[in-house]
Amino acid sequence: MKMLNRLWNDEAGFIVSSELVLVATVLVLGMIVGISSVRNAVVQELADVAAAIGKVNQSYSFSAVTGHNSSTAGSQYIDLNDQCETISNSDVAGAGDVCVSVVNASNAGG
User: Which of 17, 40, 51, 70 is 20 to 30 Å from the Cα of 82, by its Cα?
Assistant: First the structure.
């Protein structure tokens, strides 16, 4: 218990509050930049997932079927391009999606 009291009352490594505020400010600013970078990366990855889902071809067709006592006509569905999906829209590594724009705080002002 004496050792704990000695450590509690020891002021040899005392930090001035202004230094503590400066260090905390630098840490918070660094965290803001890091979190915004993570946000941009997550948005880009989710845009890639959405593009991959949008490129799934859901077209189908079947011809007429005739049985002993019944028949059915054929049917066809052609999957058209979705919004922002073009033929020249290739998947380039590191390129953003056409429909998703990430605006950085530094670019938002002007």
Answer: 40
Per-residue pLDDT of the chain (110 residues; tens, 9 = 90+): 888 888 788 777 666 778 888 899 999 999 999 999 899 889 888 888 887 887 788 888 888 889 888 988 889 888 877 776 665 545 555 555 667 676 665 555 54
Q: Structural domain boundaries of the chain? A: 17-101
In terms of pTM, does the model score above 0.70?
no
Burial 10-31 (b: 16+ CB within 10 A, else e): eeeeeeeeeeeeeeeeeeeeee
Encoded tokens for 88 = 């020249």
Q: What one-letter code names the amino acid at 3?
A: M
